[in-house]
Amino acid sequence: MTKFYSQEEMERHRRRAAWSGAAAWGALALGWLASAALCFFVNTANAQRMLFWVIGLATVSGWVFILLRQMVHSPAHAEASHTAGILADETEKTEEYEGTLRLSPGAFQIPKSIAVRRATLINGEESVTLSIDAAYARRLPPDGSFLRVQTVRKYITGYEVLHG
Question: What is the model's pTM?
Answer without folding.
Answer: 0.85
